[in-house]
Amino acid sequence: MRIALTTSDVRRVQFWRRYLPILSTVFACSLGLLPIVVSSPVVPDFAFLVLLAWRLLRPEMWSATTPLLLGFFNDLLAGHPVGQSMALWTITFIALDMVDSRVVWRDYWMDWLFASLAIISYTFADWYIGRLMGSVSEFAVMLPQLVASVLAYPIIARLVLILDRWRLGQ
Question: Taking 70 as the threshold, does the pLDDT of residue 62 lie above it?
Fold first, then answer.
């Protein structure tokens, strides 16, 4: 049984404590590279869901520039116009900061409500940006993805909670 950690153990623990949320979000961004072929948008945006779950679980961890960098990476991988995820993720963080400053306490249901509102806003903004760029699809096409995202959020939040417990338990 060890009582004290070595220097390399301390560095490894600090690395995981600092970078696991970012690495898990980057991993979720890279899920968009999987060869999943669908005729309409039904697959949730896992990168946004993971980012949202981390933000609602540990708001003190995220700086204001984090969604810009992660959004840029997501834009490059997902094929969005450069700046779309950067802007929408940053706006989501600002809105959640405003909610955090006004709400005294939060529980599981309130987190799901705030996440659902953020998912609805994000999906609508995605559709609207696509519309501005020449897409002729109606918003009703986005409804299956919207419902899947709202229903997938608790599962993603649970996975993020497991990752966070592992991160802090090292």
Answer: yes
